[in-house]
């Protein structure tokens, strides 16, 4: 997905594709840590799940401007656009503070920032999709599985739901859906 969007950026020269590339790479690292694929690349056998949430938080921070561009919030929803900027800045501060935060506090901060942003983006996308705004229609179809996957994964890692062996594969499966949809 990252390579595809990088090629799109070079052909169209729209920076939204660079945000997509960066978010895809961060999400790839996040899902690699969730599924323990990193053990084949890095000697991180005892890696704490906190590292995965750092990449998940980075992915979230990059999703904010991506969603803003895709849903054209600057023009269509200016107040929401400003609130999303504040949420992204709070995410950057959380990322900077992450080495000194406990795992539970990091997860709670991520959930506190990410859930309103993702749910809000979906609500805006549904509203715009009903008006026929094409990027919003693609957003709804492509991102609902990803947002569901991120929600389930974070709830499991925050110990709100019982751990299973299959939840960590939700994010890679949702990303595969996104790749399949846009190829």
Short description:
77% of the residues lie in helices and 0% in strands. It contains eight helices and no strands. Helix 1 runs antiparallel to helix 2 and helix 6 (103-130) packs antiparallel against helix 7.
Structure write-up:
With 183 residues, the protein is mainly α. Helix content is 77%, strand content 0%. Helix 5 packs antiparallel against helix 6 (103-130) and helix 7 packs antiparallel against helix 8 (170-181). The chain is globular and about 40 Å long. The termini are close together. The model has no long low-confidence stretch (mean pLDDT 81).
Helix content: over 70%
Tell me the major beta sheet.
Answer: none
Compute the CA-based radius of gyration: 16 Å
Overall 3D shape: globular
Oligomer: single chain
How widely separated are the two ends?
A: 9 Å
Q: Give helix and strand order, one letter per element, not per position.
A: HHHHHHHH
- The structure class reads mainly alpha
Summed over residues and divided by their number, the pLDDT gives a mean of 81
Topology record:
Elements: H1 2-12, H2 16-34, H3 49-70, H4 73-76, H5 78-97, H6 103-130, H7 134-157, H8 170-181
Helix pairs in contact: 1-2, 2-3, 3-5, 3-6, 5-6, 6-7, 7-8
List keywords for this structure.
mainly alpha; globular; 183 residues; single chain
């Amino acid at each position: 997905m990252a390579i595809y969007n990088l090629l799109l950026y070079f052909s169209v020269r729209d920076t939204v594709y660079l945000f997509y590339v960066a978010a895809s790479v961060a999400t790839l690292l996040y899902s690699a840590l969730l599924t323990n694929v990193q053990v084949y690349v890095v000697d991180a056998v005892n890696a704490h799940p906190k590292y995965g949430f750092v990449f998940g938080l980075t992915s979230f921070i990059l999703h904010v401007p991506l969603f803003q561009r895709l849903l054209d919030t600057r023009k269509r929803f200016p107040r929401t656009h400003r609130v999303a900027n504040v949420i992204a800045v709070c995410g950057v501060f959380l990322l900077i503070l992450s080495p000194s935060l406990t795992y539970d506090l990091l997860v709670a901060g991520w959930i506190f920032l990410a859930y309103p942003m993702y749910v809000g983006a979906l609500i805006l996308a549904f509203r715009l999709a009903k008006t026929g705004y094409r990027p919003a229609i693609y957003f709804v179809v492509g991102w609902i599985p990803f947002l569901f996957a991120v929600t389930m994964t974070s709830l499991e890692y925050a110990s709100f739901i019982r751990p299973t062996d299959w939840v960590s594969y939700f994010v890679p499966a949702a990303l595969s859906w996104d790749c399949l949809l846009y190829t």
